[in-house]
Amino acid sequence: MATVTAPSVPRHGILARPVAPTGVWSWLTTVDAKRIGILYGSTAFVFFLVGGIEALLMRTQLIQPSSTLVGPGAFNALFTMHGTTMIFLVVMPLSAAFFNYIVPLQIGARDVAFPRLNAFSYWVFLAGAILMHLGFFLGTVPDMGWFAYANLTSPAFSPSRGVDFWVVGLQVLGVASMAAGLNFLVTIIQLRAPGMSLMRMPLFTWVTLVTSILIVLAFPVITVALIELMFDRLFGTNFFNAPASGNPILWQHLFWVFAHPEVYILILPAMGIVSEIVPVFSRKPLFGYPFMVYAVVSIAFLSFTVWAHHMFTTGLGPIATSFFTASTMLIAVPTGVKIFNWISTVHGGSLSLKPPALFALGFVAMFTIGGLSGVMHAAPPVDTQQQDTYFIVAHLHYVLFGGSIFGLFGGIYYWLPKVTGRLLHEGLGKLHFWLMFIGFNLTFGPQHFLGVDGMPRRVFTYSPEMGWGFWNLVSTIGAYVLGVATLVFIINAIKTLRSGDRAGDDPRDGRTLEWSTSSPPAHYNFATIPTVHSRDAFWVQKHPDFGAHDLPAGAGATALSAADIPTHGNPGDGHEHDHGAIHLPDPSYWPLAAGLGIFVAGSGILFFLPLLPVGLFVLVVSVYGWSLEPVNG
Amino acid sequence: MISNARLSLRVALLTLVVVLLTGCTQWADSSLPQTTVFPLSDVARYIQNLYELIFWMAVVVFVGVEGFLLYAIIRFRRRREDEMPAQTHGNTRLEIAWTVLPSIVLLVIAIPTIPTIFAQDAIPPTASQRIKVIGHQWWWEFQYPDLGVVTANEFHLPLGETARLDLESADVVHSFWVPRVGGKMDVVPTRTNHLWFTPEKEGEFYGQCVEFCGTQHANMRVRLFVESRESFDKWVRLQRENAAAPTAGPAQQGAELFQRSACIGCHTIRGTNARAVAGPDLTHVGGRKTLAAGILDNTPENLKKWIRDPQEIKVGSKMPNLGLSDQDAGLLAAYLQSLR
Q1: 0.80 cut: is pTM over it?
Q2: Do B215 and A73 touch (CB under 8 A)?
Q3: What is the mean pLDDT of residues A20-31?
Q4: Is ipTM strictly over 0.85?
Q5: Using a CB-CB distance cutoff of 8 angstroms, which residues of chain A are in contact with residue B214?
Q6: CA–CA gap between residue A156 and residue A135 (Å, rounded)
Q7: How many Å apart are CA A132 and CA A88, to the nearest integer?
Q8: Cα–Cα distance between B111 and B116 in angstroms, integer?
Q9: CATH classification at residue B316
């Protein structure tokens, strides 16, 4: 083990790089993608509970007609924050957690391309999340719906500050997403291990690449829209202000040009996770890998051409409506290909129904239903009956809960042993899955019927004569089952962290490089960067008799060059500030400081304008200090 | 073992189909006031025809895909810990097949969809009833410009005559929807959108705003009365008349009170000095079935309660609590009830 020696060059910069190996400061100053992944994951889980409680309150209000538990103001705030939270503060950061932890390992890299920018992304994300929730402490929670349709958001119709918290919070979250998107784009293009060509990348890395591209292309659009809305509200401009010839429909176009790709930003990572889990638990390579890659890429491309299907009832005219019908139906084709290829991966395999596989296959089953209901309202005449009803609520939850959340939980069961070194309890995991599966279908299945029976979304109450009482009761019971399922998961997670069985390095007979490292991996991931000669290189190397798609049977030894197999040898003491001869950046105060600057600037817009320049000053100083900081302290 | 797997597969599939079909009968209840699948107009029927085509195709695909998934899960469960399946990497022909097949299915759906889009959009030249619908936070205004009728929250149409609705908003985005006579259309400030349909059955049909429009979005309801040409003409004649001035009793006292109070700042009662247009036209409010955009039955007690404290019944409503005494509210209610 190398000893910590005094640095041979004098330190430069405003602040020395922090050196605490453990404790709070080590987390606040970390630039290690794995630790940042853990930060993202745990923050997202806290918000998952917040968004879940919001949902349970709404479901309780709707349990029977004419209920008075939650009034209209509170109910409107609940569905606004539930949607915003689950999308921006749960599914996106949970995906980011896996990007951070898994992608560098999967591509045989030691970290992301810009580690400090990565830490900055997390702190800015946290700043945005807090800014958005500040209204809870002041009694002005955003209450205009998560897509904030103009001109309800004009000061005349939303005089309370709620909308401002949403606007500023989302704007700040956008900065975090852009930085993370660019970081992973560069990481995956630049830092792949030797031999890992694009078509040898694991599917999860592929979806991370494509999702990053979507983030980089889609977020500028919402940024523009949010700045316009902010100017309308704070400085009296009239972009969306109808009485002054502003155009409310412009907001809808800008919003959905962003928000439809956003739907794929939410679902593609889960699709990638499923594409990792199904082959491992079937002991078979992913069926039709090239088709799966082409499908992801074409979904991403088409996702920018379908936005107006959210606007079929705004009076687009028949020509535009027909175009968006065609593009929307087209996007179902690559999605269908993926479903058939996942099932074909199971077909002919040796399927082990451990919790990760249960969640992944649950994803396939539920996402299929969401896809089919999606095709129904891809037909605009049918959509004029289904739009803005509970049928849509059911559809979007089959895609984003039955899809994204099931996929992400599959990812947690699959990769948490790598992160913690301990296996989640299998029995509790299965209980969690079945409770969630049953609870999910009880909650959202009946909402299809409610939609067909004409119940609009976003209503805090309904009359008994509408006949919606029974299915609402069933739906609410289902929501409680989902609550119990989440408790089971929390118990499982705590039990695992305390006394879970040791996982070992490769408990699942994994196919990809992350399983070739120790659990948890050393700070530097790989002591020696591996050289890859095949898809599923680690698995082919372990099973040389089976061959790979581009290697003959028996050639396993060359799948992952023997000399390059990563060792667990430890050139430093494994802590973040000490990695011996391996080139890695030390922790830094600056990303946190820059994030703090953005937080102060955002608070300035919301509370006290003179704080805005103060925050921006902190940001500029931080960026200055950041750029002059020595690589290693 | 395989026969066992097959058996459980069949049981699973059968259960699936049974659940699906009972689901169908459960939700397809034609007695529900806002059901979307029992059309009672020409446009609603066009939509339903398309919906049924897509629905049954979706059922076939659902059973096929979920069946394939269940089959694969049951049939290829790991039996021995050391078993190692054949390592297939894909099958180009199969994959091309399941790229092309869904495309054909979608084409079959798209072909009838496009003409329906155009049919739903084109207002027929035969449309004989023109109604201007104005969305307000949180009530609906109906103007019949050719007939000189203005009313709120409840509107009437003659059976079998094509109606054309011109939709405008007084404030924010709303969406107008009476499901049994057709699809919804958004009501957007700065533009006029259109809906048309020909009602095919007499009766009272429910609808409500379906684009979130603020605090009381849930309580922005609408009722359509489809009636014979004769009763429609009778209704129109009544609506065109000015309000009758009551000559005695509490109604007469209420009429005087109305003219003296803040009521005239927002409402119109034709034939009197009340000519403001911020709130619903009350000229014939006594003849309406419901109050406060369809949330209360129009009874003297309900009307009195509403006048006394609208915020108690519909918090956020633009009608303020005027601090009227119980007695004054009663007089106003008696007057408004007399306006039939």
Answers
A1: yes
A2: yes
A3: 86
A4: yes
A5: 76, 144, 152, 157
A6: 19
A7: 11
A8: 9
A9: 2.60.40.420
